[in-house]
Amino acid sequence: MNLRITLLLLSVFFVIFSVEAKKAPKYTKYLFVFFSDNSPEGEQVRYAVSDNGFDYEVLNDGQPIVKSEDIALTKSIRDPHILRGQDGKTFYMVLTDMRSSLGWQSNDGIILMKSRDLIHWQHTAIDFPTRFPQLPGFDRDNLHAVWAPQTIWDPVRKQYMIYYSIGRHDWEYPTNDKNRDGSIFMQPYFKLFYSYANADFTDITEPQLLFDFGKASIDGDMIRDEQNDQYVLFFKDEGRSVMNGDWRTRQGVMRATSKNITGPWKVEWAHLQKPGQYPVEGSSVFPTIDGQKWILMYDCYVNGHYQFCESTDLQHFTYVRDTPTQGKFTPRHGSVIPITEKEYKRLLKFKN
Q: For the residues 276-289, what does the mean pLDDT come to?
């Protein structure tokens, strides 16, 4: 009788295991979503794929997957961030609605996009002064910029949280640098804010403060660290070299941690990029397909390449390599997710 029960339980276990194994997607490639340069032609959504997370080949012959003129109020985009949804089948992308040729203070909004196949996307452009006219300081004249949105799942609220950098003219502070006319250079002050998306991913709630570094900070990149039961926020200490307490800002990638998705945050006063490599921006952290490591990449935008590091604990990162950026692969601030072989083959066939 005991043998029969044991065999029955084992049979049930293997059936459940087989069902779960069939449900779990098998990722085979990394998908890099990026824009390529500061021209209107470069400020478009492009894709590249990799087998190892470090070396990438462009898709669609390097041409845009989504044309900015179809989705952006400014007819250009920057800083695309992509996320696979909780159902494993829906994809979310958020982007900066900006054309840099109009000026670095010309951007007042972000774009929300949703897709089931990584090719066809619904889109909504959100202009902050229009969407939130009741917010003091967020008017057209005072808002400096809305930059680099990203999305993360909030398991408590069971909603997608979108976070982004906000700069306002009334927050600017003086530096030791001078403009050409001899006047003091006023550093734009950026803080990180967050909103929650609605179920359709077409609108957001009123902005709330997420993180204030004490001086300008941009390009937040948040990830859940299950091993240490915390959230890790990677960000750039932005702007000219100034003192922030006992710390001198140097336009590098830094880390902060919190037990809660909205903070408060504990800053770790150190730069993570390879020593001597400044400035960098647009950090993005993603797990390796085998689940053994984390890859940290960031845009060395002055030197014209990406730099990749890896870690086993999300805290200590080792430099791996600089990725050559040449020909049709010249990525600027973007993000990476793993994809299945089926998804890869579908993208491989796509021509726009």
A: 91
Give the pLDDT score at 326: 81
Phi, psi (rounded to 5 degrees) for 19: -65, -45
Question: What is the reported pLDDT for 9?
Answer: 45
| Six token digits for residue 237 | 């200490």
Residue with tokens 């900066």: 96
Helix/strand number for the chain, H first, E second: 4, 22
And the tokens for 188?
């734009």
Single pTM value for the model: 0.91
**How many CB atoms sit inside 10 A of residue 58's CB?**
19
C-alpha 133/C-alpha 150 separation (Å) is: 23
Q: Are residues 242 and 248 in contact, defined by beta-carbon separation less than 8 angstroms?
A: yes
Contact 127, 146 (CB under 8 A): no
Strands 230-237 and 217-225, by their bridges, are antiparallel
Q: Reply yes or no on whether the pLDDT at 151 is more than 80.
A: yes
CA torsion sign for 63, 69, 75, 79 is negative
